[in-house]
């Protein structure tokens, strides 16, 4: 029977450039070939063929350039996942593509990819396609590369990071796999193409890409290969030269991905935190626990990162090193501030959290509510979380303008009175009406602390003077 398998594989090989190496590979190849027509029916593959892609494909065929889907999209299709973005590789040089597209009246978008061989074509004014000339990176500084074009598919595959990301898929459904990516994918093995050290030194971000894909692909949490870990350990420092934006993009996916807790431990063991803004003494036990209870509640990446931090000051290192958004920073700080409150009484907690939202200025209430939800995810409190998520934030009926109409002009005073009104309103379960609230204003005003009253009085005098001189 095996002989038959080998025979039919051998006949399949005539049409492909797959390099068979192991028995397992032969078998994988066999299934690939017998399934070849079925593969064309695979929804993840079939769905790609919009009229626009068909047009692109016809154009390249007409000019006799080869065109294949490359890298991550091939990996996704083979895993039965619809790829998010498609990258194409071609034997045509950027110049040749430009001539072809111009002749055929296809618009090209001005992107900055050209020096790396990428042309973006917009077909039928509807769909953009990024097509990159096969290339080899001749000079790399660990971040950027100077490239040379080639027509050799294997050379292009060799400069890619992981075997599972190094495959090409012809538009006729043929898989081109030079580094056993398909076998690795089936075995859930994440490995660099060829020499790990070399691949990492070409772009140190690949260290984090390795961990991201490990989470995505590997079945077991701790099955890294020793040689891979060694290469990472030796090159960890290279991450120091990578931009905060790129690091954060990868880190965000790692901390909410599969196996995030053991992966984080592994990253700490290899000495990565120092180079990526994470605290040197990150609280890994807390990270483990939070991951276990929050994972299914879809936490934001910053919620997970907060688990590593013990003091708000550590957020400053993150802000300095990584390009996190203001919202992410606010989320992290709120989580750190409130994370121990879950240890209080449950019935009071919901009210307490709703109060935090209601005391926030109207325009920011929804965001604050989402941030508080992150606290609940951190605590793993699914029932309180769903109560807060389904809660419709009631509108506080009194505005600053209403108070000004009552003769309170000055910011600090308006703020103080409004805060007190909000507190009364929350206490009443949001049942006090506009009239009932306004009826409390005069009394509250008398309670405004002295220093605020004095400041208000001073401002009032200045204001009055200004009005006089302006006249
Ligand atoms: N540092 C990098 C980044 C990318 N690539 C190659 O370029 C492809 C496309 O890169 P990208 O879209 O960034 O990653 P994907 O692998 O497609 O992953 P994702 O699904 O997250 O887009 C990768 O598959 C890989 O072949 C690489 O070798 N080294
Ligand atoms: Mg991609």
From TrEMBL:
Cofactor names: Mg(2+)
Pfam families assigned to the protein according to its UniProt record, in alphabetical order: PolyA_pol, PolyA_pol_RNAbd
Coiled coil: none
Keyword Endoplasmic reticulum recorded: no
UniProt keyword annotations, A-Z: Magnesium, Metal-binding, Nucleotide-binding, Nucleotidyltransferase, RNA-binding, Transferase, tRNA processing
Domain Poly A polymerase head intervals: 67-190
GO cellular component, one term: mitochondrion
Lineage top rank: taxon: Eukaryota
GO function terms (MF aspect): metal ion binding; nucleotide binding; nucleotidyltransferase activity; tRNA binding
One example of a Gene Ontology biological process annotation: tRNA 3'-terminal CCA addition
Alphabetized InterPro entries for the sequence: Bact_CCA-adding_enz_type3_sf, NT_sf, PolA_pol_head_dom, PolyA_RNA-bd
Domain tRNA nucleotidyltransferase/poly(A) polymerase RNA and SrmB- binding per the UniProt entry, residue ranges: 225-276
TM segment ranges: none
The family this protein is said to belong to: Belongs to the tRNA nucleotidyltransferase/poly(A) polymerase family.
Name of the protein in question: CCA tRNA nucleotidyltransferase 1, mitochondrial-like isoform X1
Lineage, highest ranks first: Eukaryota, Metazoa, Chordata, Cephalochordata, Leptocardii
